[in-house]
Amino acid sequence: xxxxxxxxxxxxxxxxxxxxxxxxxxxxxxxxxxxxxxxxxxxxxxxxxxxxxxxxxxxxxxxxxxxxxxxxxxxxxxxxxxxxxxxxxxxxxxxxxxxxxxxxxxxxxxxxxxxxxxxxxxxxxxxxxxxxxxxxxxxxxxxxxxxxxxxxxxxxxxxxxxxxxxxxxxxxxxxxxxxxxxxxxxxxxxxxxxxxxxxxxxxxxxxxxxxxxxxxxxxxxxxxxxxxxxxxxxxxxxxxxxxxxxxxxxxxxxxxxxxxxxxxxxxxxxxxxxxxxxxxxxxxxxxxxxxxxxxxxxxxxxxxxxxxxxxxxxxxxxxxxxxxxxxxxxxxxxxxxxxxxxxxxxxxxxxxxx
Length: 354
Fold this sequence. Notes:
The chain is an alpha/beta fold. It has helices spanning 81-88, 127-132, 156-160, 179-189, 193-213, 243-251, 291-298, 301-304, 307-310, 327-333, 336-353, and strands spanning 3-5, 9-14, 22-28, 55-59, 62-66, 73-75, 96-97, 115-117, 137-139, 165-166, 222-227, 234-236, 280-285, 314-317. A four-stranded mixed beta sheet has the order 12-11-13-14. Helix 1 crosses helix 4. The longest helix is centred in the middle third of the chain and has 21 residues, at 193-213. The radius of gyration is 20 Å and the shape is globular. The model is unreliable at 1-38 (pLDDT under 50).
């Protein structure tokens, strides 16, 4: 498995059952330029003096002990949510999943200068790559069961032989570990509890302002659905307990009771198409869906008769924003940087529709 400086990563975002996304065909095409062993220590803000070491790191799979404040941090979660949280804290890891900034919004936070490992959907995380980065802490927060087709339980013991491993308390969550919980865990492990609190507080203040500015969202139901084309069809992504549902709630929308229909299965069959209706319908187009397939879906009578569509409370989103970002990735990953970026692009479109 190659270790490379982050390069252009091509791929598809496939239908999601475990983490509201699945990654297929992702690969790094650049020649290796920089190995993890050539990296210097991770860049960390100054210690706050609130965490006492040694620190026992508990997980559902066992315990490891962090003897002192770490300096070299490897972030190994397949979709790189842990890397986003580290960057939000001002921490630069020595290793990250190559899918960091697949959504196109983390470059300005340092994602374009990271050493990465290549991740392919369903393949094991390359433990040898993690070992080569010489970490003194391995971060696996935000790794839900089966994320990217792999389970942390299958990797934990081997990772723990390399360095202490920090996880979120409940990595068996079906869809979502709230990033707020994960960043607090990171804050304690890295002696950055105040910084973690500041990230959460800033996020809450930002979305409070969004809700204050857009009271018209308050109490309305909303659906986030994605057309994946012929391969995986229409998928209901704002399922109960999902990152998209949490994102819509931060904007002020109420939970859609119809979402219960998709709690176990996200695929929207013709028989269930009426169940995607809501006060506001957001329909995205994945990179796998052709424009003709979108026109076929939105031109059908079953779709046009949805109340959100017939009333004009319907927003159709392209695969990429004008600046090349991916709203689907940002909202499905559910991190603080991506959520704020997504809101900046999405809120004006929804406000115009209403």
